[in-house]
Automatic annotation (TrEMBL):
Phylogenetic lineage: Bacteria, Bacillati, Bacillota, Bacilli, Bacillales
Signal peptide feature range: none
Presence of the UniProt keyword Transport in the record: no
InterPro entries on file: Glutathione_peroxidase, GPX_AS, Thioredoxin-like_sf
Matching PANTHER family: GLUTATHIONE PEROXIDASE
Keywords annotated in UniProt: Oxidoreductase, Peroxidase
Pfam families, per the entry: GSHPx (PF00255)
Protein name: Glutathione peroxidase
Keyword Oxidoreductase part of the UniProt annotation: yes
Gene3D superfamilies (UniProt xref): Glutaredoxin (3.40.30.10)
An annotated Gene Ontology molecular function: peroxidase activity
UniProt record similarity statement: Belongs to the glutathione peroxidase family.
Classification via SUPFAM superfamilies: Thioredoxin-like
Length: 181
């Protein structure tokens, strides 16, 4: 299988093939509108603006599996992203990224690259780990998505290159994107 074999539903109900993004570098992200990491919408938009003309794209997938931080539907999420954060990249319909209803694209992504070790060096990291351990301990096992704003970097050939956790440095993410462009 390849990333190009997967489909995703846009907020208007239209089905879009990942083939649409062939020959582009992609950062695919599960997002949430009411999360402590929601500020990252702006950082993602800056990356999109900086590198979009070089063949880079951000694909956002709202998800409500972590603390019910995205209760609204995909269309409302997309509108909020546009009006509140100035997002102009594609926001898809709301999906699940773990469990029995995991979207096939995210099942593929999380099995293509290893899950990094959960670092607990900062207060933010410790808080996030404690919250996951208390509320979603199964998400700490295997290759599950641990929280909102987990990012997958995909190269121009559709290979999943790297997984970035929600607290990953945008400096590191940008450097990784630049090496693929």
């Amino acid at each position: 299988m390849s990333i190009y074999n997967y489909l995703a539903r846009k907020t208007n109900g239209e089905i879009l093939s990942m083939e649409t993004y062939r020959n582009q570098v992609m950062l695919i992200v599960n997002t949430a509108s009411n999360c402590g990491f929601t500020y990252q919408y702006e950082d993602l938009q800056k990356l999109f603006e900086r590198y979009g003309n070089k063949g880079f794209n951000v694909l956002s997938f709202p998800c409500n599996q972590f603390g019910e931080q995205n209760p609204e539907d995909g269309a409302t999420s997309a509108l909020q992203c546009k009006t509140q954060f100035g997002v102009s990249y594609q926001v898809f319909d709301k999906i699940d990224v773990n469990g029995k209803e995991t979207h096939p694209l995210f099942n593929y992504l999380k099995h293509e690259v290893d899950c990094p070790e959960f670092v607990r060096d900062t207060m933010q990291q410790k808080h996030l780990y404690d919250r996951i351990q208390t509320n979603y301990p199964d998400y700490l096992i295997g290759r599950n998505i641990r929280w909102n704003f987990t990012k997958f970097l995909v190269d121009r050939n559709g290979r999943v290159i790297q997984r970035f956790e929600p607290d990953s440095s945008f400096i590191d993410i940008e450097k990784a994107i630049e090496t693929l462009l």
